[in-house]
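Notebook, student rotation project (T.W.).
Task set for the rotation: take a protein with a known small-molecule partner, predict the structure of the complex, and write up what can be learned from the model alone. Partner molecule chosen: nicotinamide-adenine-dinucleotide. Sequence and SMILES entered below by T.W., checked by me.
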Amino acid sequence: MIQKPMVEGFLRQALPRLIADMAVVHLSALASLAAVVLWQRNEVNQQDTAALVGALRHYYQFTFLPLSILFPLIFATNGFYTRYRTYSGTYKWITLAKGTTIASLVFLFAAFLLSRAQSVPRSAILLFIPTVNAMVIGIRVVKAWLTDRKTVTTEAPPAVERRPILVVGGGGYIGSIICRKLLAQGKRVRLLDSFVYGQDAVHDLFSHPDFEVIQGDCRNIQSVVSAMQGVKSVIHLAAIVGDPACEQDRASALEINFAATRMMIEIAKGNGVERFLFASSCSVYGENEELVDEHSDTGPISLYAQTKVDSERALLSSKSSSFHPIILRLATVFGNSYRPRFDLVVNLLTAKALREGVITIYNGEQWRPFIHVTDVAEGFVRLLDAPLATVSGQIYNLGDSRLNFTLSQVAETIRTLVPGTRVEHVENPDRRNYRVCFDKIRNEVGFACEVGLEEGVADLKIALQTGRIPDYLDPLYHNQRFLKASGPLTSPAEIDAQVMAAFAMALSDPQPVSAGNARRQ
Ligand SMILES: NC(=O)c1ccc[n+]([C@@H]2O[C@H](COP(=O)([O-])OP(=O)(O)OC[C@H]3O[C@@H](n4cnc5c(N)ncnc54)[C@H](O)[C@@H]3O)[C@@H](O)[C@H]2O)c1
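Predicted structure of the complex:
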């Protein structure tokens, strides 16, 4: 009894091939006969041509058609639909040529026996044998080529990099968006954060299979060592962020923003980390009337900016053939995030316009570069994958030249989107003024901002109006106020003061990098 799977196998695999071979045999016969007619048409008159066509048609119908069944039978006995498929290399093609030639000869012999009286011109036979050979082998060669190509593109995709990306300080305003972007790209993400402002921004990610959380302080050597294990790249965002917040707790700012960066560099190098992306700030340019770019002198006028300059230097001097630091100097960020911040100028002014109907602009003619928080995250993600030969050891201003605005222009945009807002202008001693050129990141990495000021303000307005952000004055959204309320971030039990003191030393002279180097505001 024939087994059911065998029948199914024949119907699914052998039958389509058999039908294709029959079609090829008939096409070859028709082509050979047609070629003979075309050839002889020039040599004989019309009547003879018509007679030839009639004879060939008769031959095809009454000799070729019934005897063509010999081809699949001989093909099958030569293993065309079974063992041939297991052969490889030239032997495969020799088997095919041999089987097809045998089938053609057997057919000719049978045809000779059957229709001796009306034999077909020899030229047709001479043409048929190579044609049927070429076509039977040809379709298999083409099929094998197509299958090979498919195998290369679908069955052997490039190996997906599964070493995690460590995001230090990824639980904050910017990091919570970066983590989501990386996960959406199918990357593994490890987060090291002490969650100064709580876990809410990333809590929903804790159950994600590619997300791993280490709650710890980046000043704690054990936490950093275990977080760096097996990591491919690091995105370092952890900091006390903003001038007022750093002034609130200068000792912690120095440790977290500078000493911990230096310690992390050493641990990253020891663990074979390839890329180390560092979140610096355009505030390193300080006070400058000119359009500044990555070659311009830095002139930090706050402890916060000074810690960024010093961390940049530490990173750039640590570059090696296997360790690639990349510095991103961020423009002033705006927009809503999973951890909203309202100590940023655009966000604060938008909230004030909506809630109080009046905004105060200090030194309205000062220039600032701006960038939406989702564009910041996109910039980091791009630089993780950008060619190392281009980006290793480089500083990039992260922003877009179209988003340099004076504070008065920002106020005007907000007034347009929140009609009825009253704008008050005040002068104060804050002299931060910088217009920044972002050509380098656009030209070398192809980065341009997607979100404009209007769009970001409009989105924030909706979040505030719909109650997604119930109270913009909540200290949780203001770094300095929060730190003032919570007290110093130094926990003697967790932080080795001597390790921090050692890493807090300036790079070239053994002086702590603190207040002396940074002018107070
Ligand atoms: N937001 C901006 O306008 C802006 C502009 C320029 C540069 N930056 C830089 O971007 C980075 C991220 O800024 P953000 O706006 O997301 O700030 P954020 O305050 O929202 O986030 C900082 C994160 O670091 C964590 N953190 C702080 N101290 C830590 C410690 N000791 N150990 C481990 N984690 C710690 C906090 O818990 C928080 O999750 C910072 O380095 C900041 O200097 C931000």
